[in-house]
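User: For my dataset I need records formatted as: sequence, then structure tokens, nothing else. Please produce one.
Assistant:
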Amino acid sequence: MRLPALLRPWTDWLALFPPENAAPLGDLLLRLSPMVGPLRRRAVPVAVEPAGIGDIVRRGHYERLLIGEWALLDAAPDEFLRRAGSGELLFTGPEPADNEQSLRSVVLFDAGPSQLGTPRLVHIAMFILLARRAELAGATFEWGVLQAPGTLHAADGTDALRRLLDARTLCVLDQDGLARWDEVLGPAQDDGWVIGDPGALCPAALRSGALVRRSWLGDGLEVTLSGQGQRRTIVLPLPAPEDGVRLLRHPFDAPDGTLKTQVPAEVHSLKRPPIFSNQRDWLGVPMADGSVTVYHVPSTPQAKPGRPRNRGKTPMPMDTIVAAGVFTRTFGAVALREGMLYFFGFPGPFFHRHTAPAIAQADPPLFRATPGALHWARAFHLVDQGGAEAVERVLVLDKAGHLACWTRRARAGTHTAPDTTCALQAERVTGAIQHGDRLLYVVGRMQRSDVYAMSAKVQPEQPLVSLPPGARFLFGELPGWGNGGGTYALEREPGVWQVGDSKGAARITLRDGQVVLGCARHASREAPGLVVLEPGRTRITLHLPDNQVTLLESAEPIAQASYDPNQDLLAWLGQKSGTLTVRAIGMATPLLQAVSKRGTGTGGHDAEP
């Protein structure tokens, strides 16, 4: 990669990024570099006794005056004084000694809530500046996250920058963490920096800092650098939103414009939306022939997507399925036929089609099952096979807000039939999401909405957090739930949403015809917003409290669309071609595209929001 002459000092670092990301990052480096300055070595005090005689010099302490000069003092005092005043006396010069000590540069980055979004662009630039600065001075460079007391890392290229960007948290440094940092860092560092929130606690050993916050007078970032008795402030203009999003979310991925096209064996159905897995990398799409195809979604546009897995027709007729989900790479479903519930496809020991016997539907029913509905109820699956007992749960959430749960358990290492129980886990459930082996769900009450978390073996007793009441709840960013944080969207009344996080919430009002797909945080904005399919069905936008951002525009109407907040992924089916496209928010190049040879399996009248 050819760089302008002014950027060549950071060639080794910028070469880690594709040109599309190196350009906006290089602009930040050029603006911040003059404010940082070089790292200079400090000399230790010179010993009183010289290390040896290296030369004869005309300046020095009189303890090193040549013995011949002392003889002149005795013989001709006036001449001695004249030579002393004229700088003509001769001294022994000390042998040069290594009076410099090894340097250590330590930088801590604040990964707390005030630094989410665009401030992290400054974190990347300061990381590169300070690492290169330490390298030029021959110093050891170490960095850490302010909210992870006692842990320091070396500057190891892309791995270090990935860890820095992944270190997001809604926690702040407390007094215990500050004491831990003071213990690890000691009384003072030769070169110590804190990059982050102006109001955050700071270890006493770090005497320099770059305080980053949104500018009061525009869309830029205000950066105040302090240290060595100086304080300097600069307002950095932000890069274009798409450049900032790409740099934060996919810093090392080059948009090569190449689509990873798949050709499935069957035709996509437009009746039902794509189903994201509880784990990253997998997506299920119902097909027109009654089968389900599970696609592997690559993590970058350059990665190979792998071959799609067509699960064939389900053991039960498609029109009997009442609830479904994708778990890792399998399609799990619950079917209702003649008063019996059939479980198949779940990746556990007890609810797989070969091991799960039919279970009679409870009377009265635990949930409202509607065979043949265009939209299946959402199914969740939790399993824990560790320990002395294996536990597996299947949960179903219907449109009425009933969360039903079927549990099977057996002692490990035995061949006895597992015990089976069924119960109504909760009523008035306004939202739920599964990530890995953890299920979060919200119970709407008269005065509040309570968020609960459960796993295969842990039943919730107390809510994680209580929020205002609402008719519909959408989870956004999952990190932080359980620690008083997490982003969310809450529909207070039809078309009126409350969108927020631990820092507060804002009101967003939508028009008729706009379909809400989820809740997301745009990388160039601190506040979360609503992912919305617009009425023309050719555009998906992110509605923020103060404006809106276009996420994608489709050349054809969108028949079905889904959003996964776990990975910030959008998946949609084209109305005319039936093409499946998967793209990450903030990326221009799709991660996956699947084009059917024979078009679509249904006409436009079959698709619904």
